[in-house]
């Protein structure tokens, strides 16, 4: 065999072996990712099986389930519990600390919650799968908490677990804060975590919590996905309306019973909503969306002063956008009577009110009393009042970093700052940072959004996978080496401001 032929044969053998090894490596890598995806689905399914229903009246409600979930997480995420410090706060909430290499940098806090809402008794037979079995079927994990908010607890810890497998070490300290009573206000969970951090002199760089999501077909006229980031949140207030009467037999009712008076009051509140207003956060939202809604919308927004009433009228026509321009009221609990032939002496209603920025408890109560216009209807505050949040600035490296993270995970989505109409645990951290971002890394449409707190709550395996990717990216983007400097230099090089104006 001549020398040239030997060299050619040797090259052929080396190439064949190399490609064979690459094939094996790729096959193993696919299997590893496939197994990891399968395992994390099982982790969420197991998490759902703990009935961690929170209670307003009993702070130790379902204590065994909460403590059982703590133990479950320790088993499911061994590296996290080996390298991070975990503290139980007020017995049932969890605070993890991932210490960074640079103590001069302010920490970042990523928030989620362990508790869930109860199953309405009237809907128990409507569930296709047991709400507390965590069953996996048709590409979904089913059960209470799959969308709110146990999927994020699992995704955050899984992201950290995978980064630890790669020997990742953040430069900036990271806190994972998992409250146990978010669904009933968060005062015993996130409220206590916040107080603990404040007592230790901690000032946070930012908080990333649940909130708005990547929305499809939410805004009329906009076809592309919108990654809506909550940079402000409405306030929350419950008012109790009470009407008393003399009672008696239903065969001889008076002209006006407590139920009749209460019903009239509710109708008057419905017929006299709060006036629409365009707050700065929603104006910012509209400015971004106008470029995607066609020439006439862009022109109207550019000349907002001339078209203000028309724009507000257009936004008021849709349920989703109407919530962005006014304080909203909704009766949620009605109580009166115990027997069909006995007139109740007392009728009550709880009104849940989501308060637009620029209003407060005093202006809301004034509006309610004026609308009802009946002194026989007693109005009193029920529970605790949460004022509207401060507005998070979008001209910062943090917003740019979040924007980059979202684009990397959801490349087809337009990132838009927006008002969050609900309330989350993030309200308890406003004393520690002005930078609070409310974003849930999942894709929803009008139908899937209705599953939250509802029958047949479920999340797709693909959504869970993307959620993990999002938090892996977010941790590295905000807490990696020289993270802030990278985004400062990037924006300076582009000669563009941060935030939505530079997108």
From TrEMBL:
<keyword id="KW-0378">Hydrolase</keyword>
<feature type="domain" description="Peptidase M20 dimerisation">
    <location>
        <begin position="232"/>
        <end position="374"/>
    </location>
</feature>
<keyword id="KW-0862">Zinc</keyword>
<keyword id="KW-0645">Protease</keyword>
<dbReference type="InterPro" id="IPR011650">
    <property type="entry name" value="Peptidase_M20_dimer"/>
</dbReference>
<dbReference type="Pfam" id="PF07687">
    <property type="entry name" value="M20_dimer"/>
</dbReference>
<dbReference type="GO" id="GO:0046872">
    <property type="term" value="F:metal ion binding"/>
</dbReference>
<dbReference type="GO" id="GO:0008233">
    <property type="term" value="F:peptidase activity"/>
</dbReference>
<dbReference type="InterPro" id="IPR047177">
    <property type="entry name" value="Pept_M20A"/>
</dbReference>
<dbReference type="InterPro" id="IPR036264">
    <property type="entry name" value="Bact_exopeptidase_dim_dom"/>
</dbReference>
<dbReference type="InterPro" id="IPR001261">
    <property type="entry name" value="ArgE/DapE_CS"/>
</dbReference>
<dbReference type="GO" id="GO:0006508">
    <property type="term" value="P:proteolysis"/>
</dbReference>
<dbReference type="Pfam" id="PF01546">
    <property type="entry name" value="Peptidase_M20"/>
</dbReference>
<comment type="similarity">
    <text>Belongs to the peptidase M20A family.</text>
</comment>
<dbReference type="InterPro" id="IPR002933">
    <property type="entry name" value="Peptidase_M20"/>
</dbReference>
<keyword id="KW-0479">Metal-binding</keyword>
<protein>
    <submittedName>
        <fullName>M20/M25/M40 family metallo-hydrolase</fullName>
    </submittedName>
</protein>
